[in-house]
Amino acid sequence: MIRNRFGLMWLGVATMVLALATAPAVAADAAPEAMHSPNFAVVNGQVVTTQEFELAFAQLVRQRFYHGSVPEAELGAAREEVKKLLVQRVVLVQEGRRRNIQPDEKSIQEVLDGIDRRFAGNPDWPAARDEVLRFEREQREEQSIVHQLQASVIAALPAPTEAQVRDFYQRNPDLFTEPEKYKLSIILLRVDPSSPATAWEGTREEGRGIYRRLQAGADFDETAKLHSDLKMEEGAGSSLGYLHRGMLPQSLQDKVDKLEIGKVNEPVDALEGVVISRLDDKTAPRKRDFADVSERARELFVRDREEQAWKSLVTELVSKANVKYLYPAQGAPGK
Hints:
Elements: E1 2-3, E2 9-10, H1 13-30, E3 39-43, E4 46-49, H2 50-64, H3 72-98, H4 105-119, H5 125-155, H6 162-171, E5 177-178, E6 181-190, H7 197-215, H8 220-227, E7 239-244, H9 250-257, E8 268-270, E9 273-283, E10 286-287, H10 290-320, E11 323-325
Helix pairs in contact: 1-2, 2-3, 3-5, 4-5, 6-10
């Protein structure tokens, strides 16, 4: 499934060939009530076929569910998501055509020629060729129209003013705040994760001995040179430098959170072995000055405004659409 920047679904040729072979296996999950009808819905007078729905549903299943089947608890939500995206796609293509947006025929033909070359050696290709290329052309034409519609919506937006960018900066402090950081020094006693329990316990005991010597006044950096299996850059000593939250294993993070600056942690297990750490410094979260992040703030504001403009158009078109589902599904939205 090809998704554009704003989430709409588009089936590529490889997807279609694969889905056509397997759609019957997922059809019951996709829309059991629609199995007896060739048409799934009508959107502003345009028919959405049951096959379109089943192919889109099959691809969503492959993309999201590892074992190729939808858990019963998630089945309804998956159907509703596909229905929603298909309706959005139809109304956006209709709007593009209403605005007289034409598909980019040159690029579409290049894609089709590439598909033809790609499958030329497949013995099943001659029988499937015309139908696959027809389907792929329809998909690519619709995709081209919607992409151009997006571009026109974005192009119509005026250039952002500094006042708008500053307001965005003020309303979204988390986007411009440096997280809390820790400066950490460590001694790593490496253990292969697949080592037996006896090897791990022996290394833990070694760590406890090193920890006792550090508590008695041994120099951390000198001890690291003697015992640590972590190779540091020249002049770095045992320091990892400044790390932000999320970079440490949770077992170590929990210990660091309780440490005072200059204090040494008891040994803890990590993925690569046993770690003894010392907290050297901690910096509080800091919101960066506008002057330092003005370009980033402008980029984020522009992106947010583009997405909001697009979502507003989609919401408006869907809200005005005359949608009728052609099966008696319970709770099916429609008119």
